[in-house]
Amino acid sequence: MKVFLDGFLPRILPANTPFVLIPHEGKSDLETSLPRKLKAWRDPAAKFVVVRDQDSADCLDVKARLQALCTGTGRQGILIRIACRELEAWYLADLAAVDSAYGTHLAKQQEKKKFRQPDQLGSPSRELASLVPAFRKIDGARRLGPLLDVENQRSTSFGHFVQGVRRLAGSGAEA
Questions:
Q1: Helices (H) and strands (E) in the chain, counts
Q2: Is residue 83 part of a domain?
Q3: What is the pLDDT of residues 14-60, one digit of tens each?
Q4: End-to-end CA gap in the chain
Q5: Is residue 175 part of a domain?
Q6: Is the pTM of this model over 0.90?
Q7: What is the DSSP letter of 14?
Q8: Where does the chain show beta strands of DSSP type E?
Q9: Does 106 reside within a domain?
Q10: Is residue 174 part of a domain?
């Protein structure tokens, strides 16, 4: 996720908006360290975006659990977004970007049912690997962060992420 966001966030944030990405070693690390990191952050005006994969969990439960962890930290301006099911669903929502990144010819498949709503796929990473044998998660994140269409609405969770970040950053878009 961090590698993807390195290439993607500058495209949706207002020009010259500084940001810091803090990677975590999995979901347990995120949930264990999140309250402590929020409390310890020295800039009182800082805003935070917490994003993680849904995986096989219930999306609403995951979001509620993360919100509960943020409660009591004394922080305002915390946006929590869940990539349904995995970050790779966001890539499958933009097969033209996948084509650009990997030299494939998949964009014509975008209107197939499973690619019209990729958040519904059980394992987007497995689906993407079957379509693009050269796909590897970190390399794919590096390639696709600068390429995904920021206005793409095929992945509902991607659309909510983009709108939420824009709203939090004050660039005028509503979530």
A1: 9, 2
A2: yes
A3: 999 999 999 999 999 999 999 999 999 999 999 999 999 999 999 99
A4: 21
A5: no
A6: yes
A7: P
A8: 48-53, 78-83
A9: yes
A10: no
